[in-house]
């Protein structure tokens, strides 16, 4: 070790091969016996000597949100195009939803701080499934809910909400779909627990990203309607979109009452 000044500022000193005087002076007691590291904390992941890890749930949170958006949009457009020749979501609208997901939702969900319970959970094997049984339960439920909403609005939206075909086709479906993802981001915070608001006040970035998402959606609907190919909505139509999207909260609570085995999700 050539830079003795740097070494003297360290809390510990490692000697490769033969020990040096500088290391002996630094740590006081010097041993040349082999030592084994059993766990290493790297970012939000705890690695062990056996090739397994304790991962933070933020990866699973974002993965569930991303899969829900894409599965719901794909299935809805496929079924609607086969039945009526029209799709509920245009290419520009899907692009906006995915852009929002890749940036804002990623920042909102991936910045959730892990709790101390993470160190007490069993290790997760690197060869284990990326989508666990718990994730499949939540994913299937919310995809079915959103597909049902989109197809219902596509075929019966005019009579249910009381809007003309142009507004229904261009905006009501798109606005409801985006708001579903906003409410679903709260659900994605907790994959197992029913209380999706637990500790939400500690994550200021999550609340900020939700606010920015809602603000951008209002701007797109009310001011960039020509670019997005939409029509402006009145207050009644906004309330209808919010009310329909908010149904994802009670549905998520009911789905989490269904017990499943094989819960490999780390502590939340």
Automatic annotation (TrEMBL):
Q: Which GO terms describe its cellular component?
A: plasma membrane
Q: Which residues form a coiled coil?
A: none
One Pfam family, short name: Cation_ATPase_C
List the SUPFAM superfamilies: Calcium ATPase, transmembrane domain M
Where would I find the Cation-transporting P-type ATPase C-terminal domain in this sequence?
A: 87-257
TM regions (residue ranges): 130-155, 167-184, 205-224
Q: Where is the signal peptide?
A: none
Q: Which keywords does this chain's UniProt record carry?
A: Magnesium, Membrane, Metal-binding, Transmembrane, Transmembrane helix
Q: Which Gene3D superfamilies match?
A: Calcium-transporting ATPase, transmembrane domain
- In Gene Ontology terms, what is one molecular function of this protein? P-type calcium transporter activity
Question: What InterPro entries would the database entry show?
Answer: ATPase_P-typ_cation-transptr_C, ATPase_P-typ_TM_dom_sf
Q: Which PANTHER family match?
A: CALCIUM-TRANSPORTING ATPASE (PTHR24093:SF509), CATION TRANSPORTING ATPASE (PTHR24093)
Q: What is this protein called?
A: P-type ATPase
Native species of this protein?
Trema orientale (Charcoal tree)
